[in-house]
Write a structure and sequence with these properties.
Alpha-Beta Plaits, 2 helices, two-stranded antiparallel ribbon, alpha+beta, about 100 residues
């Protein structure tokens, strides 16, 4: 949970506004139903990285995307927009 003193920006009516760069604070928890998984078809075009609304896709040293499952919400935008069909949404079973 984000504490009141951690909120840097407040919008109209005092409603908290979070910047995309602060998305790391909002962890998914165990409610995500599906998660994205990248396969060997990936050509590292980085379109998924650009389109992710949660900044849950990171780039490794070679520039290939990988998923930060702590903040990924499982929305599937990355999979729907991948031109190579290199991302598949799979059922996420929580332990």
């Amino acid at each position: 949970m984000i504490e009141e003193h951690e909120i840097k920006y407040k919008g109209e009516g005092g409603i908290p506004v979070l910047r995309a760069s602060e998305a790391k604070r909002l962890k998914t928890g165990n409610w995500r139903i599906f998660k994205p998984v990248r396969n060997e078809k990936c050509v590292a075009c980085r379109l998924c990285w650009l389109l992710c609304p949660e900044n849950a896709i990171r780039l490794d040293k070679e520039g290939r995307p990988y998923f930060d499952y702590e903040i990924c919400k499982g929305c599937g935008i990355c999979a729907r927009n991948c031109p190579m069909k290199a991302i598949e949404m799979v059922r996420d079973f929580h332990d």
